Amino acid sequence: xxxxxxxxxxxxxxxxxxxxxxxxxxxxxxxxxxxxxxxxxxxxxxxxxxxxxxxxxxxxxxxxxxxxxxxxxxxxxxxxxxxxxxxxxxxxxxxxxxxxxxxxxxxxxxxxxxxxxxxxxxxxxxxxxxxxxxxxxxxxxxxxxxxxxxxxxxxxx
Length: 157
Description:
Layout: H1 2-8, H2 22-37, E1 41-44, E2 49-51, H3 55-64, H4 68-71, E3 74-79, E4 88-90, E5 99-102, H5 103-109, H6 120-129, E6 133-137, E7 142-144
Parallel strand pairs: 3-6
Antiparallel strand pairs: 1-5, 2-7, 3-5, 4-6
Helix pairs in contact: 2-5
């Protein structure tokens, strides 16, 4: 990630310095982004998530195409990772990676630092408790780069 930031020049890399868990790291990132950049939306990613070309623009296009009363209630949008019909569905929860969330809502809901690992179930619930919709776009907008591990079998003589 640090190399990606260096190459793009359009991001900041914040090193936490200890194994804090994802919730703490997300909370730090949300606060930093809102204070320093004032974005409308934030995109939560894992280090193995690959965002396909134009995915965020496409997702926001789907969002803009929603009827105004629905659009006004949307709090977050999960980017799909499988080929699908490219329709938008309401969801209860999914993993946080690939989630677009309105920055003001992220400040109110992210993240319970006592949840060391994936706190997405809690995040999605908190967004809905504030009266917002949690949606998923059923399109391939993100992928995941899986590291390949080679296991060698060594037989003794």
